[in-house]
Here is the input.
Amino acid sequence: MVQGNKRRAERKPVQKQVEFFVDADIIQAESIDLSSSGIRMLTERPICIRMRVYHEGGGFDEQVAQLVWAAKDKNKTSYGFEFQPDPERSNQD
Here is the structure.
């Protein structure tokens, strides 16, 4: 089954260096199913990261994002993240 494009913003291909920091908190989860090769889990809140997207000329933009999807293909994995308001910046206002 193919689902329609749910994107709210235009996407354009870019190749930039990205670093991301996984929240160091312990996240509580409940298993859905389990096999000898893996586990599917359910969390009460999304897994959040902080990332830096570097510009070619130097400098970077910092974003907070939630993991939305992941897909494995041969030796690499693609991840989809949705940008979120930065709680650290909103506390500075």
User: Anything to note?
Assistant: The chain has a mean pLDDT of 86. Strands lie at 18-22, 29-35, 38-43, 48-54, 60-73, 76-84.
